[in-house]
Write a structure and sequence with these properties.
The chain has about 150 residues and is mostly helical. It has helices at about 10-30, 35-45, 50-60, 65-75, 95-115, 125-140, and strands at about 80-85, 90-95.
């Protein structure tokens, strides 16, 4: 009789991660956004005025892909490009008032998503899980707050 190995922790992380990403995409679709768009809005909010090129490097994505994301959000008046005062060839990215409001809505959706995904855990377990996952992410050299999916675009 063959013994089937139990699923390892790495598999479970991948399984839960794929599930969480799909559910998050469904939730933000109700805001007429994609996960990369929500991540871009968050990244701009964290460091307003960063150039498109610097942001593309930070996210680990091709600059051409970032331009398309910025264009879509700018067309919706969620982001704006301003000339960089230090180098007029560069555009500095900033949230608009509508972008700030959308980021608040995204925050509420993300909080509800987190609560739904972690419903089986109490507050202490959630804090422990977060601490352990942060330690793993740090050890693996992952950029805090940046989904690795940007690198595969």
């Amino acid at each position: 009789m063959t013994t089937i190995p139990r699923a390892g922790s790495a598999f479970l992380l991948a399984q839960i991660g794929a599930h969480a990403a799909a559910r998050y995409a469904e939730r933000v679709a109700a805001l007429d956004l994609t996960p990369p768009q929500t991540g871009l809005l968050r990244a701009v909010a964290v460091e307003p005025g960063r150039s498109q090129q610097a942001l593309a490097t930070h996210l680990g994505m091709p600059a051409s892909r970032l331009v398309a994301l910025v264009d879509g959000l700018a067309d919706r008046d969620l982001l704006e490009r301003r000339r960089n005062p230090d180098d007029r060839r560069l555009h500095a990215l900033h949230l608009t008032d509508a972008g700030e409001a959308m980021l608040s809505r995204i925050g509420r959706v993300a909080h509800a998503h987190d609560d739904a995904l972690l419903a089986a855990l109490d507050d202490t377990e959630r804090a422990t899980l977060h601490r352990l996952l942060t330690r793993i992410a740090d050890d693996q050299g992952l950029t805090p707050g940046v989904h690795p999916g940007y690198r595969q675009v």
